[in-house]
């Protein structure tokens, strides 16, 4: 069970949440130590005050104190570093930063409720307990009592993690009384849970356990029919609206790092790691590689479930092997740098209906390279090779030509099913317009 990384400020940053309790640094600024201890104590005391007195001011003070306790280690870890996008992404992977987001959400968006304070209370209580126990050596009875409490630390932290997930259910139920305002906080908390899932092993474990429990309920012979039918619908809703993940890490991806029922996955600009076959969940339908990604593909890298596949700016790897791009793909987009000549018929599978060849691809097309399933084709922005009869399949309905394309076109070269040509910010949709366009275009290329 992983614990929250809410220790006193360390000397160096942590890029990825560890599964065990955070290590305590040997030395750091006394002011920050005292501030951290005060913030931890205030979190605990204000939570108890809200429990027994019920004054909303104590609720807000508890969240504020917890946020300060999380911010102090982040500040110390990154003090003096130049602000960059990469640094921001590194900080986001730190559990302290994630829990700051938690505090912000429930400080500004939620109606005060004790359940929102409990995770912070548990984390603070055990951090303080670990500091107090060494000071009680001369009072054996007290030390023994505190040691018994400490023995429950992992269970308590597990409870805190479970609460983070259960709060989501609580928020959904609350929509019936809070209306539109409740929907807003639910959607914001969705995003928070996504981030937590990607970077926190305990959240992954708890969600996996919850998923297994739901499977057992669904398979139980005494499960009511309406519940058995409702579960797949809820799973679908979760996959569409919650687990459309954006993966911000630049670290390697491992098995079970991603939820098994994810619908959409975007690898953001920092990610450039090899993805081994069968590593990505088989539920993914939309897969995007953005920015830096430029790794060799293997058969099985792209799941067979993917329908929409997009490669980012820097991707420039060969796809000349049947099966690298699975036959499930219907929409295929290449980025600006892609310029690997496609020579194998079937490398672009015959399932693809929409194809965009990026910016810099500049190799002659030959018959069969573009499959006869394609109905929308966008040629590369800088494409300068002539198009010959048979290069374009007759299935194409919409053709987007480069603005600077200057080779002659004829009705024989163009697909028989063609209904729309887009060229130089103009769109031609009638046969007469297309014929006139070809005449004018050929005059301009002479």
From TrEMBL:
<dbReference type="GO" id="GO:0005783">
    <property type="term" value="C:endoplasmic reticulum"/>
</dbReference>
<dbReference type="InterPro" id="IPR008615">
    <property type="entry name" value="FNIP"/>
</dbReference>
<feature type="transmembrane region" description="Helical">
    <location>
        <begin position="58"/>
        <end position="78"/>
    </location>
</feature>
<dbReference type="GO" id="GO:0071786">
    <property type="term" value="P:endoplasmic reticulum tubular network organization"/>
</dbReference>
<dbReference type="InterPro" id="IPR032675">
    <property type="entry name" value="LRR_dom_sf"/>
</dbReference>
<protein>
    <submittedName>
        <fullName>Uncharacterized protein</fullName>
    </submittedName>
</protein>
<dbReference type="GO" id="GO:0061024">
    <property type="term" value="P:membrane organization"/>
</dbReference>
<feature type="transmembrane region" description="Helical">
    <location>
        <begin position="31"/>
        <end position="52"/>
    </location>
</feature>
<dbReference type="Pfam" id="PF05725">
    <property type="entry name" value="FNIP"/>
</dbReference>
<feature type="region of interest" description="Disordered">
    <location>
        <begin position="1"/>
        <end position="24"/>
    </location>
</feature>
<keyword id="KW-0812">Transmembrane</keyword>
<keyword id="KW-1133">Transmembrane helix</keyword>
<dbReference type="InterPro" id="IPR005344">
    <property type="entry name" value="TMEM33/Pom33"/>
</dbReference>
<feature type="transmembrane region" description="Helical">
    <location>
        <begin position="167"/>
        <end position="190"/>
    </location>
</feature>
<dbReference type="Pfam" id="PF03661">
    <property type="entry name" value="TMEM33_Pom33"/>
</dbReference>
<feature type="transmembrane region" description="Helical">
    <location>
        <begin position="99"/>
        <end position="118"/>
    </location>
</feature>
<keyword id="KW-0472">Membrane</keyword>
<feature type="compositionally biased region" description="Polar residues">
    <location>
        <begin position="1"/>
        <end position="21"/>
    </location>
</feature>
<comment type="similarity">
    <text>Belongs to the PER33/POM33 family.</text>
</comment>
<dbReference type="InterPro" id="IPR051645">
    <property type="entry name" value="PER33/POM33_regulator"/>
</dbReference>
<dbReference type="GO" id="GO:0016020">
    <property type="term" value="C:membrane"/>
</dbReference>
